[in-house]
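Chapter summary example.
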Amino acid sequence: MPTQPYQRQEVRTLLDRLSEPPRFLIFVAGPRQVGKTTLVHDALSQYGHSDYHFVPVDQPDVSRAPGFSSAEDIAYDRNTRPRDAAWLVEQWQRARAAARESTDGYILVLDEIQKISRWSEAVKGLWDADRAERLKLHVVLLGSSPLLMQKGMSESLTGRYELIRVTHWSFLEMHEAFDFDLEDYIYFGGYPGSAAYIRDEPRWRNYVNGSLIEPSIEKDILMMTRVDKPALLKQLFHLGCNYSGQILSYDKMLGQLQDAGNTTTLARYLEMLGNAGLIYGLQKYAGQQHRRRASSPKFNVLNNALMSAGSGYTKAEAKADRSYWGRLVESAVGAHLYNTGHPDCNLYYWRESSREVDFVIERGKKLTAIEVKSGPASGHASGLDVFEENFGKCRKLMVGDGGIPLVEFLSYPSEHWL
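The structure predicted for these 418 residues follows.
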């Protein structure tokens, strides 16, 4: 383990934003348990002055930050009050008062902002008033990606924010922070909070299932979004983990799920799981957009811990099953491509008859076809050639045995391979 706490690059990005005059709201968004709150605290601890206040929306605030330090304030915040728009306005007004008194400005941080009903409308009015006054008040908002994007960022707050996207930890980050080797990363994935338990696999598994998976579904999806069939969404999640790295038609899903409803419901629930940073359904690459939407999805977990924790395999057993280990390797590659992809990058798979390409990255006119090899068996290279015949000149990559070493591939972001 490292002697110094590991610091993700998003800390520097946030510090850069805070060093500028406040022009935009700053959103720090990403899946549960990837370190959003920690990196904001890291940035604040390194900031040039201490005029800030960090407010966890879902907890009583008893901090003694500047402007919020009197006994009256602490008693006030200990009271159980509804976290509604009126409460948000009060917090903001007090931050405004502190900003007006400070020569260096002020920072207000609101964690779990999505738990305030109609938060985006309130934030819009408050922020616009601050800009009219040219107030030196930075506002940092934290929350889970789907709720922020679907409930305000792209609606009420268009043009008023900058997004700092925080994704699952990469192999390189887990290696540098926790000394993970490649096999550790392939099996245990990239949750920093679980790293301390990987030598005690039952404890690790309990942590992932109880502290990561269940809250992600129960709190980030079911409590905040209308889901008519919550049991079906949970079944779909576990099915996706079991089939990660495989293509499964919606008709086959309907046959394996109880009370499955229809394909439209499954597609919507799969999108929710993807927005929550759990499972993504890759669409088949095709020349026409409507053909992509109509294709059978290829499941891919966005963190391999989600696949391993419910597999019933120990790490040693997973390695011994070459077919299963191959799907873990492929899932790790897919998760890496998705998590490190530029917002303008699109990720697909391609298959025609027996010819298949594991992943296709598209950005503008750039196109890369990728095959993953986790063992000595061959047979996929021709899929790359057929893909190129169908769609024109592209970059063709073989990852794994006989190609780009997996360690090297996982050490560079997705767009590096375009």
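To summarize the output: The chain is about 45% helix and 15% strand.
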